[in-house]
Every structure is written in C-alpha cells, then in structure tokens.
Amino acid sequence: MSSKKKEMSSSAQHGTQYRWWALIALALAQFLVILDASIVNIALPSLAADLHLDTNTLSWVITAYVLPFGGLLLLGGRLSDRYGHRQLFIIGVTGFVIASAAVGFASSGTWLLTARAVQGGSAAMLAPAALALVTRLFTNPQDRANALGIWGAVAGIGSVAGVLLGGVLTSSFGWPSVFYVNVPVGLLIIAVTPFLITKDKPGKRASLDLPGAAAVTAGIVALVAALSGTERVGWTSPLTLSLAGVSVMLLASFVFIERRASNPLVPLEVFRNKSVLSGNLVMFLIGGATTGLFFALSVYMQQVLHYDAMKAGLTQLPLAGALVAIAGVVPVVIQKLGTRLTLAASLLLFAAGLIWLSLAPSNASFVVHLLGPSIAIGIGLGGAFVAGTELAVHGVGANEAGMASGLVNTSQQIGGAIGLAVLATLSAIKTRALLEGGMNVPQALTGGFAWVFLGAAAFAVIGAIIVLTVVRPSLSRGVINQSITIGEKGNRP
Fold first, then answer.
1. Between 20 and 30 A from 357 (CA), which of 23, 143, 301, 331?
2. Helices (H) and strands (E) in the chain, counts
3. For position 9, what pLDDT does the model report?
4. What pTM, to 2 d.p., does this model score?
C-alpha cells in the first residue's frame, strides 16, 4: 500500500474528520490529570483539619497520587498500544471519575490516600493513551506541531490552574469540591469520545512486561519513602538506608529485566536518541520543580501570609495568565529559534523567577514581592512545558507512540514525587534549624520555603545545562517536522 493510501486509511481509522474537537476532549482529560496533582494544594489546611492529618501526612496526599501515576504510566502506555488507545483512554477516564468521587466522600486519611492512589493509577492509563491518540490523529507536520503545542500548554496550565481553582472551590464549597469537579467533566469526556474518535486497531498481542512494571513502581515507591522519612529519622538511619538499598536493587533489576524482556516496558535503545533522553530528563526536573513550587507556595501564602483559600488561589492569576499568554506564541518562537534554544531560555527564566521568589520575606506584599516572580515563573514554565514535550517525543515511531507518551508523563510525575520528597525534606530541615536558632515561626517557615524555591531553581538550571550540552545544535530548528518524518518511517536516529 502506498504511503498516501496508508495516511488516508489512518485518517479514516482515527476519526480525523473531527480531530480538532477530539483534541479538545483529549486535552481536557489531560488537564484534569495534571490539575489533580496541584488542585489539592490550597485545600490541604482544610482537609487536614477535617480528617485530622498531620503535616507529614499532608505531603502524601499529593504523593499518593503522583507515585502510582508515574510508576504505572509506562505500563499504561504499553497497554494502550496493545489493546487500543481509545479503549484504554475511556477505561482510564471512567476509573478517574469513580476515584475522584470516592476521594470527595473520604472520612479518614486511609480512605483518602487509597482513593488518591486509584486516581493516580487511572490517570496512568488515560494519559499515555490520550497523547498517543493526538500523535495519530494529526499526521500533517504543521497540524501536529500546533496540536503538540496546545498539549504542552495544557500541561502547564493544569499545574497553575490547580492552585487557582483549588482556592476558589475550597473557599466556596469546601475541600471535597476540588475532587467532585472531575466527575461531570469526566462524564462529558466519556460521552463524546466515541463520537469524535473511531475505535483504533489494537497492536500485537505480545506478552506484557509485568515484572518490569512491578520492579520500577516498587523501586520508585521505596526511593520516595526513603527521601520522605529522612527529616524524621535522619539520612543515616537503618530505615532510610534500607529503603534506599531496596530502591537501588529494584531499579537495577528493572534495567536487567528490560534488557532481556521480549517485549520490554521501555526499549532501552530509545534512549540512544539524545532528544528523547534529554527531553525526558528535562520533564523529570520540571516535574520536581513545579510540584515543590506549588506545594510550598500554597502553604506559605496561607500559613505565613495568612491568606484565606480564595485569596491564595486568586493570587495565582498573574502566573496563570502569563503561562497561557506565552503558550500561544511558543510554537512560533520554536519555528524561529528551534526547540533547543527555546527550551533552554524558558528553563533559565523559570529559574530566575524562582530565585526572585525565594527573596520574599515573612511579611511579603503581593505587588512588591510576589507579582514579578509570578509573571517570570509563568512565562518560563509555559515555554518549558511546550518545548520540553515536543523534544521528548522526537524520533519515536508511531508503533511506540503509547510507550513514548507514557515515558514523557512518567518523567514528569516521578520527578514530581521525588522532587517534592527532596524539597520538602530540605525545607523541614532548614525550618527546624532556624527555630532552634531562636527565629520566630513565620520567619523560620519562610526560610524553609526559600530553600524549596532555590532547590526548584537548581532543577531548572540543571535542565537548561542538559539541553545545551546534550541536544545537538543541528536539531535547533525543525525538531517537530523531523520527528514526524522519523516517526512515520518507524526508525530511530
């Protein structure tokens, strides 16, 4: 069959007649997935009061979601390749809706954390399937570039909108509403998807790499548990060292399994593509920086500056507005400067905004101390999400679209879980040291949060260094068009 006939067949199969409407539905689902990693931040104080949760448990309200999300994304990508992207997408959205309702009804910490874990597992099914559908719906290079630009922007907007909507909903309707909001939106997505996207043909029924999935998920859980516990028991305690050792062994066994599996969860040769490798490393670092940022910023505003939930959410409008505004022009900037330079510049601006934010005092004025950093962070983060997503899918064949999509999301969510564990621990250590030194509570908390912002800035700077040193200058322009050509041929550079 000629390439033109293949493209026509693919277009018919995936319902490209309504592809832009389909993109809205898919992006909306992705928005919910990213939103739920951050929307709970503003609600944490209210949630803690109702369910009697201590500060250490609060971070696990976020971690319980992002850990299974990140840990199971690779398996979710493979499942979507095997059983059909649309089918796994609908199953994932259904599970996400049910789990969201269950979280809202939670009457104990155990119930809430369990339901959050189910939310994360469902997100791990729908997210890679959704991005795979996007890449297969849009075969024209320019259309795909625009679609991926929208997709990357949605990811960034979801992180910021979570803080904004979390404040409005918590203040108006209570903390359960931040989870209930997923239900009607999810049901709408489930209802319209069969009409917008035709059922795609499942891939080969090869064996699933369940041992690999178990090893990488358990290894990441052990690592985050080790990092999260260091503030209480210390870096050299038997518990910390044991968990760290178990994590190293599990992650090493994952690499061993992947090298020998007939149908590996992640074909390790994909990382020979420096664009894919660097793109995923950058998304890992972005995930760590943004999760730590919004967790610390939400608590800082409410516990130090004494903003109520509504005010804390509304103060994120400049950041969200800057992100939305820049997301619309990033694809144009990429066409001019290339993905490499656009991504590096965005990461450095993101880092500059975080460093600026770290200087805010315990009696900060929003206009004087927070507005400027918020705008800089929004612009940098918007550019980084769009360009980072595009770089991370460069050069991957269409037959592995689900795997590549899962890998991008995995990098971001695992980065979020590990980054939050590291930054929250550093913040707690710094705060305790300042309190023991005689500093008052607001100033000590502010000093601890400053370490979070500086640590997040370090993540962004490391990401920029990776992009500038690993990505070839020859890929500075036309990355998207090249990736589509390579992907459609099914080759890896």
1. 331
2. 19, 0
3. 43
4. 0.74
